[in-house]
Structures
1.
Amino acid sequence: MNKKQSRTFAIACTAVATVAFLGLTIDSHRQFPKLTNADQLTPQVIAGKDVWHKFNCVNCHTLFGEGAYYAPDLTKIAKLRGDAYLQAYMRNPAQFYDEQRHRRLMPKQDLSDEEIRNLVSFLTWVSNVDNQGWPPRPILVTGATFPGTDMTAQQQAETSGEKTDGSAVPPGARPLSGNENPIALGERVFRAATPACAACHSLAPGVNMAGPSLSGVGSRAAQLIGSPDYKGKARDVAGYIREAVQSPSAHVVPGPMYSANGVSFMPDTYSKSLTPEQLDQLVAYLSSLR
């Protein structure tokens, strides 16, 4: 290839690349309204965005992978925590964590009720944007995990059959082989449900996140059912767990970070998002954690 041919080839390649780039750019802008749910940009959502900027939330948090990477990514937080939890948390973060133990660094911003509602609306709109899997590995709240992301050290130990202290893990806490095993299938439901159970509940003893640890939940349920403190209607462990999944407020676990005014922060949508078979599998899995 001589110099003239090389020059022509380079110009042609540049032209093709430019056309492709422009075409992809135009196509992206064409799809933005649908991908971002532009029709859902209500005045309340826009006001919530202003609250986000007013209080410089981006100085610590990230959205779509953009931000300070100092605190958890909040792109999908509205789907993981829900409206009631977020409102209570924004009013007073201190009641959700022990500052000495957990090193809570989230300041109390003294937002008004209207600002809180607007900010939650904004985060809900953000959570519904089709971000096509970006960021691939968001910063998560302590102990949480999503399918496709790295697990915490404790969770990795649990799935391998060992605890971080070297002792054995209860059989129900590790994934079992064989699609026919309801406990194995239930463990997958635990990780893949929407929202993922693992985003709020840890399987490690004493590790309480947005929801209480589920380590030994089968044994605790058996004790609770016979206690006068129990407010639900279940008569056995499986019934208690099923009730907790489908009607979280039937019996509220004590603690300001789990409920407000007798209403659990846990979503009550699992009876719709899970099939009856998946619910049976999840109950079998959680019942095995003793």
2.
Amino acid sequence: MADESLIDKIHDLSDLELAVLICLVAKEHCIIDTEPDALDELVEELELVAENVFGLSHAIVDCSEHTSLDDFAHAILSIDASSSRSNSPVRPRQESSYFLHTSAFQSISKSPVSENFADNKTMANVIIAKNLDEAPKQVQIQALELMHSKRIYTRTSVQHAPKRFLFIALLAGGEGPRLTKHLNDQIFISHFHDPEDGFPNLEEKYDDGDSTSSVLKKSPGFEPDANLWPRVSAAEIEHLSQLSDQAMVSVEIKAHQQNIICFLRTHRAVAGGVSAAATQHFDKLSRCLAPLHNLSYTTPSLIALAARKIYPHRIHIVKPERERSMQWGSDVDAVSALLEGVGPEDVIEDVLGTAGPEVPL
């Protein structure tokens, strides 16, 4: 089990920080959703989470329908490999967010990634792909290849992801699958951040940092001492990862988990999305949650919590004319009325509630 000081740190994390921690522990990737008006603030908050909480470099990919493969490669290969700070856990924000402020994503025509560029740049630890669902299919396929193989092919070289690597698909205003099928299934968890929950790191920055920015002039290579010591270290993340691998799952809990999967697959509102990959992720997340709650075993409540994070971005809601009772003469208008307003989260809550399997004692 984790020591008390680490558990106290985990309890102090915000919802976004906890989502990032879970993905780093599991060595997987995530979708973070929010309201459209709060998307830019969420990008800044995640930048600060990567830097200050975990001491990781980051890069922003601002996607649109005109984003090309070269644009994508330019954005994620944003860290100067020849810099004297290449071995430091912290990189200046200016390096990783440079391409967010260029016009590269406004035009589909762009010069190829130069050999010199690829040779002198390396990949950031955290890739934040804003509006990835708006990117062309070939860009989303490139993102899938990056997640799966942890490398990206430019026109002149192959660039490998760092050991600690996280890809965040940042979406806005929607539910259910919005990415290409295989990319969506590769994503580990999804999390909705309500803007009313706030952006603590961003608020702290503007409360404390801006007031001194006019007094303290930083050189391009200067980083505050506080940022050199992330709140959650790489050693602590690795320790949590080892504990999650060792978490015990009883026969009763495993059976309960499989029953939830069966009930989701046979739910009348579900057309698909409860895949084999989702089942593997379901089991993995259940184990990862145990050490975060200072447990060496999984429980029914952890299983339920894992289901609420694994399936919302995967479940497809069936069209009324294809709902299974239509085979036996149901009225399509009655089925439409039944399914109106039903989303993936409603299905999950239905299965975890009275309509689902009995919870083992």
